Every structure is written in C-alpha cells, then in structure tokens.
C-alpha cells in the first residue's frame, strides 16, 4: 500500500504511519517493523523520514535519545535528592528528640532538687518551732497544752 505513494510527496506518504519516505529516490516504502531501525540498504538514516517530513530519522533518533537521557538523569537526581533529604530529616528529628529528652530530664532533676531544698527548709522551720516529729516514733500523740 505504501508503494502507491512513491513519486508523489512526502506528506502524502507519511499520512499512513506504517510508511517510510526515502529522499534519495523519492520512494514510499513499508516501514520495516521487524527491525527497530530501517537498514541502510533500504534507505540511509539521514535521508529517511518517518512521522514528519521536516526531520530526518537520524536527528529524530538523536533527539529522542537526548530527551530520554534527560528524563532518566532527572529521575535519578530526584530520587537521590529525596533519599538524602529523607535521611537528613530523620537524623534532624532524632537530634530534636534527643534534645527534648535531655531538657525533660534536666527539668525533672531541677524539680527534684528544688523539692528536696523545700523539704529541708520546711524541716528546719518545724524543728525551730518544735513541730518536727521524732524520727524513731513517727506516730507519737500530739499533746495540747
């Protein structure tokens, strides 16, 4: 079916997506689907057109390879960046948790120290006024005078 468009124009040939236009002899041939690229005996890549007439097959392959390479590189960079950020954020969270735990422990120790100081101060006041109970017999009777 593609050979019917030979000696006409590239645009008419490429309306059918299964056709390949060769500029060396202005022929429209069936695209060789068994091989990915058309062989040079059929038509050289610089003179072959497929899909559009304004770009040759060689440039089309190079452009597609560059675009695919850029996409792969960008995906790789994004994955590496995300993994690095995730690792960094985890370590940052761990550091924050450790810091909060240290502060919590410091506050607890300070609170216990203040509690102990208050107890000593209260015991001194009780001792001064004779309200401190005997440590040997804590259940002694309170005597009214």
Automatic annotation (TrEMBL):
TM region positions: 59-84
Protein name: PTTG protein
Coiled coil: 86-122
Keywords, ordered alphabetically: Coiled coil, Membrane, Transmembrane, Transmembrane helix
Biological process according to GO: protein import into nucleus
Superkingdom to which the source organism belongs: Eukaryota
Cellular component aspect of the GO annotation: cytoplasm; nucleus
């Amino acid at each position: 079916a593609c050979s019917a468009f030979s000696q006409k124009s590239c645009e008419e040939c490429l309306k059918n997506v299964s056709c390949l236009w060769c500029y060396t002899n202005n022929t429209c041939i069936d695209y060789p689907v068994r091989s990915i690229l058309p062989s040079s005996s059929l038509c050289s890549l610089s003179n072959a057109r497929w899909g559009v007439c304004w770009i040759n097959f060689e440039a089309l392959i190079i452009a597609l390879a560059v675009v695919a390479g850029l996409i792969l590189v960008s995906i790789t960079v994004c994955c590496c960046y995300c993994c690095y950020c995730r690792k960094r954020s985890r370590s940052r969270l761990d550091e924050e948790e450790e810091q909060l735990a240290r502060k919590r422990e410091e506050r607890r120790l300070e609170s216990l120290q203040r509690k102990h100081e208050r107890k000593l101060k209260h015991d001194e006041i009780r001792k001064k006024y004779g309200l401190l109970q005997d440590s040997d017999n804590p259940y002694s009777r309170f005597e009214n005078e």
